[in-house]
């Protein structure tokens, strides 16, 4: 069965600090997809990144970067020089090829203080 | 760029009433997914449709049903509403089921009183 664990329930940082959100997943499949979504206070789910299981290259997009390590089943997300607008709940999610559903972690609430 | 449209955005119903939520996918997207997010919870997959056929089923209660129409929009029908059905209901769409790149709508907040 697929499972996503985000051990950090809440994180609070001061603006300009770097912060890493952890995500550990479990799956029996060799082919799967990992995602990160941002949910700001307004409630919508904003797609951030998708990574398939065969692509272990780390990715950087502006202040965001992702570290995918199959050896530890982790897909961590780092925000560099955090800003107040980064305050949101961040969800890591896993989708196996066999099924169409997406399994979300419990989410990490990030608060960035000015 | 066009996004997923959900209507209504907010809905208040009483116990035992019925509700219908609508979802209009991104143009050319043929796959629709429904998720339920309770207060303080992560989104839970309910059901999905690909080319108007149910493609996968999650934790959708028997009181709920859904379908995808010829124009690819989808409706989630909820009957005998319970207080526990109060949640944010998301629809997502993708181009095929293989891409796995699901784009979410803004959600419908359902409150059952």
Task: Offer a quick outline of the entry.
The complex is a heterodimer of chains A (114) and B (113). With 114 residues, chain A is mainly β.
List the main descriptive attributes of the protein structure presented here.
heterodimer, A: 114 residues, mainly beta, four-stranded antiparallel beta sheet, 12 strands, 54% strand, B: mainly beta
Task: Give a description of the structure.
The complex is a heterodimer of chains A (114) and B (113). With 114 residues, chain A is an all-beta fold. Chain A contains no helices and twelve strands. In chain A, the strands form three sheets. In chain A, strands 2, 5, 6, 10, 11 and 12 form a six-stranded mixed sheet that branches. In chain A, a hairpin with a 6-residue loop joins strand 10 (88-96) and strand 11 (103-104). Helices cover 0% and strands 50% of the residues of chain B. Chain B is mainly β and 113 residues long. Chain B has no helices and eleven strands. Chain B has strands at residues 5-7, 10-13, 19-24, 31-37, 44-50, 53-57, 64-68, 74-78, 87-94, 103-104, 108-112. In chain B, strands 2, 4, 5, 6, 9, 10 and 11 form a seven-stranded mixed sheet that branches. Chain B has a four-stranded antiparallel sheet with strand order 1-3-8-7, with no helix packed on it. At the A-B interface, strand 5, strand 6 and strand 11 of A face strand 4, strand 5, strand 9 and strand 10 of B.
């Amino acid at each position: 069965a697929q499972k996503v664990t985000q051990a950090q329930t809440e994180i609070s940082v001061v603006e300009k600090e770097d912060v890493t959100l952890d995500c550990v997943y479990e799956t029996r499949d060799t082919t799967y997809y990992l995602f990160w979504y941002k949910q700001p206070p307004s409630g919508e789910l904003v797609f951030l990144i998708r990574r398939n299981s065969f692509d272990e290259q780390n990715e950087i997009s502006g202040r965001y970067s992702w570290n995918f390590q199959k050896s530890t089943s982790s897909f961590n997300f780092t925000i560099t020089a955090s800003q107040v607008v980064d305050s949101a709940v961040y969800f890591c999610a896993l989708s196996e090829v066999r099924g169409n559903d997406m399994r979300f972690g419990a989410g990490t609430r990030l608060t960035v203080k000015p | 760029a066009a996004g997923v449209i959900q209507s209504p955005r907010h809905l208040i119903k009483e116990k035992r009433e019925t509700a219908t939520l609508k979802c209009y996918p991104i143009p050319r997207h043929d796959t629709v997914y429904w998720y339920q997010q309770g207060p303080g919870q992560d989104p839970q997959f309910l059901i999905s449709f690909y080319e108007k056929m149910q493609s996968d089923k999650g934790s959708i209660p028997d009181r709920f049903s859904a379908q995808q129409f010829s124009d690819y929009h989808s409706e989630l029908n909820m009957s005998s509403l319970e207080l526990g059905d109060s949640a944010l209901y998301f629809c997502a769409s993708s181009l095929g089921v293989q891409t796995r790149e699901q784009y979410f709508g803004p959600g419908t907040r359902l409150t059952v009183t």
